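Hello,

Following up on my earlier ticket. Below are the two sequence lines again, exactly as submitted.
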Amino acid sequence: MRVWQPGSYMTRQRGAEVDDWSWKQTVRRVTTLARLTKPYKLRTALALLSLLAATATGLAPPYLAGMAVNRGIEEGDTHALVLLVIAFLAAGILNWLAGYAQTYFTGWTGERILADLRNLLFRHLQRLSLGFYERNRAGVIISRLTNDVEAIDQLVTDGVTTLVQSTLTLFGTAVILFILDWRLALATLVVLPFLFVATAVFRIRATRAYNAVRVKLAMVTATLAEDIAGMRVVQSFNRELQQERQFRRVNDEYRQSNQQTVVLNGLYFPFVDFLSSVAIAIVLGFGGYLFFNDEILIGTLFAFMLYLSNFFDPVQQLSQLYNTFLSAVAALDKIMDVMDEEPEVQDRQRARELPRINGHVRFDNVRFGYGQTGPEVLHGIDLDVPPGTTVALVGHTGAGKSTIAKLLARFYDPREGAITIDDIDLRDVSQRSLRQQLGIVPQEGFLFAGTVRDNIAFGKHDATPAEVVAAAQTVGAHEFIMRLENGYETEVQERGSRLSLGQRQLVAFARALLADPRILILDEATSSVDIGTERKIEQALHLLLSDRTAFVIAHRLSTIRNADVIVVLEDGRIVEMGTHDELMARRGLYLSLYGDWAAEVA
Amino acid sequence: MVNDTKDFVDAAPAAYRDTFARLLGFLRPYKLSLTVSMVLAAASQAASIALIVITGTVINDAIKPHDTGKLELYIVLILVIGLVKAVCMVGRRFISGRQALGVEYDMRNSLYAHLQRLSFGFYDRHQTGQLMSRATIDLQTVRFFLGYGTIFFFQHVTTLVGVTVVMFVYDWQLALLGLAITPILVGLAYRYSHISHPVLRDVQQKMADVATVAEENIVGVHVVKSFAQEQAEQAKFEVRSQSVFRQSVLANRQRAFYVPLISFIPLLAQAGVLLYGGYQVIHGQMAIGDFIAFNLLLSMLVMPLRMLGMWIGQAQRATASGERIFQVMDEPEEVTDAPDAVDLPAGDGVVRFENVSFAYVPGRLVLEEIDLPIDAGRTVALIGHTGSGKTTLASLVPRFYDVLEGRVTIDGADVRDVKLASLRSQIGVISQDPFLFSAAVRENIGFGVTAATDAQVEQAARLAQAHEFIAKLPDGYDTVIGERGITLSGGQRQRIAIARALIVDPRILILDDATASVDATTEAHIRLGLREVMKGRTTIIIAHRLSTIALADELVVLEAGRLAARGTHEELIETSPVYREIYEHGLLEHELVEQVEAAAS
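Thanks for your patience. The regenerated structure is below:
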């Protein structure tokens, strides 16, 4: 089984495909975003206001410069010149202050909304039942919280600002130009359609090209990662030359695909630049002609030239926004899909807390199937387990062992029948109170990033250090923990990768032991561990299973043999039940299964 | 980003300038295109300046004096220059674009080639993730800088010089006034780039922390729910989420202060020029056209000045990334061919360990004074607790590591005197949890043989008891496995690995039998197949399971890096307490087997 690579979500592509552009969906999107902004109405308003102020004051200087020429310089009026330059500076200062306010408020509000969205999404994910996690790949879920929230980040911080600012600048400039001289404005604006078309075509082609590049780059990265991870094999088999050739090929494919973007960029930007040269020609040519007819002043020409850049920059910025916008909308849709999911197993309205139980478990004619319409996988399970009994669940893969365990932990609800603990139906109590009294040890021995102590105390945060050590000693983990560099304070890395498989299992046992559950659900690992640790695990198991009710999905011969009751499952039914000796004498399914296991280790 | 430079202890801290110079070395093959790019860049900047100068001239020469003829001429000139400029820009972008891609291509290939030559020891010390970040993120930073940064630098400098000169020609006093703000602007831009970078990097780090909690909670959802820890985990998440928020706000505050300020400073210069220049025009000391041109030139300065400030920051980052890449490139190749290495002499696979000692880390011996002769064709099982040195001993034979003392010989030749390619082609290795590539089954099996025929592949698969299950796969031998394909079970992967080793027809086989459980029937088949295959080949088995004992001609017991005992099973039961202890554990299982057989009869 492939081990999960931490951080693999990072290589996932940012997909920008939005399928649903219906009005209904757009309204939903806007409402979702609006709801997030609600708590920050004041700051949002301030952000907007300062944005408007910044844009407006940004539009003023060229106009004032033009006036300075017309009223001041051309008229020889020094006084007017000074006044206009002061106004010019004032506009600049106001622009500076408005810019500061705008950046601050937009940034703060944007980041706040994002943090809220992250927390909201996480909280919702925690509420969802196990079924959701089993239906969806972990990587996909993780990218909702990371990549998709980040995509919205781009939009909310830079995107909105650029959108508003660029659009206003564009329109504002056009308006001012018309006010200055409508004929020259019209002539100059002739360039605009060419600019728009070229930008649109470029943007669409470039997006496609960049997507292709991303795919090729992912190939390069994947090949590189795989070859590095498998370098030992490459060297063992003298395969260096072929692998290098293969890598070069992939590297080259990437280079070729990137060439496309070079060509696109290489044609677009110079074209835009040429358009600006044409604009200059128009302003001077037509403007000159107007000047000849005494219909325009020099200062106005000056202002026009200063305003030209106000066209070209915003259009390009808006086009860059295109990608950001698409990614963000796609991301928002995906996040909304998650938020729409409802947990399958929910606490009843007036669910009570499960009182301290003895551990008498009963399955009453339980029938179950996954989803609402999935085929039935458990057909009438009847079990009566007195407190303190160790039950070994055995059977072929898919017989229903883990399903029973999941139902007991109420990760799913049965379709028919009931599961009770001490005669209390599981559906009548809160999930939290139930699981606090259950101990579940999954197959893999999953540990969290943190110290060994944190991990052992995971189920009981207020455990004293003495309690932690006691639990570790009981399972036989204390010695190897003390041999670690910082003992109990040693940082266990992501998923406990520092420790061996056997060591992780022991820590998981200690964790379960410390939580001191009345009912234990244990899924035995199947992979082999080294002989020394194997012995320890068996001893630890023995201790763990005594004195409480335990359901074990068993693989070890010793566990099965020592269980109080062995339940043999086949195709979702209990076919045999009893002790090891009873079942051996029966010479039925158990005997044949047992034969297989014994042969495996022979 | 995790500070992992401590892992590359041997690399001496390189001076910035040295690394920088080394980076520029990558441009050497592109000297011609670099030169042409620079010429084109200079030309297009000159054209920009020319356009502004012409603007001024048009106003003075044609518009003011109402000269229609001249106006028409000048307009045509503007269009021509505009076209020339555009063409130069196209040329420059195409050439420097191709060059940038070429540099990236070269660097990536170099890095890869070097990585191939580094030995097992290196890969033991470094995780894939670290190496990947150098090959992707660091490489990207460097290539942006080498590809675009250099030409941009040249372009900006050219613009600045050109504009400054022209401004001085127009009016040196006005020029000084306009340029007064230059150092302030550059300084501010640099300072902002300098202080914002660590803050932004910290934001990334905190976002990674958020992602870690997210990942753990999603992959470990079972455990979280099992222990009813949802609320605690929520609290943990919100703390980190808040951290990101606070850090982002800090970054934003920096931005709010600097960016509008940097936009404002040029306005001061413009105001000054408007005033003083305007004054001069009023008093007839300057033509209005020149005044306008001067103002336009001033606005041309803004972008390059800001870019220059940021460029310094980019150069620093590229150098830092370059350093990290060179750390890998400078790693010495530990296991290489001796200059006079020969092919492996003909023979039947006699392996001798002569007084072999080995340590992964200096000072901590893993193997001590091992003397172990293995005759040709014999199967030896290495037995011992975890850490006793079994796997290490076996990996000395294909020279995955070199001995510290003593020597390992095959058919009389010290492995260090043999060419690696020749040596390894005679040794088949099947390791614990074998690594398979994302490729077709056929390619995986034929990995060690250039152009393996289908017949060869199938024969190897049959010997490895893999043919049956492969035939049942959706595309048979062409089925793609791995990341982009089908996931195989542990047993299936082991069998493909066996086939992979067998197709090479090696003299010596090294096999680690710790695998995920296989069902009893297949287990028996594999055992049968192995027995066949091991005939006539010297085999070293690293034993984890007692069932392996039956396969071996003799057993070697290792304890704490030393040879503890050697012999057959019966001999060792008598003479070796270590062996007895290990065996006893498995005895329980044997008892149960007997019970079954008794019950079945």
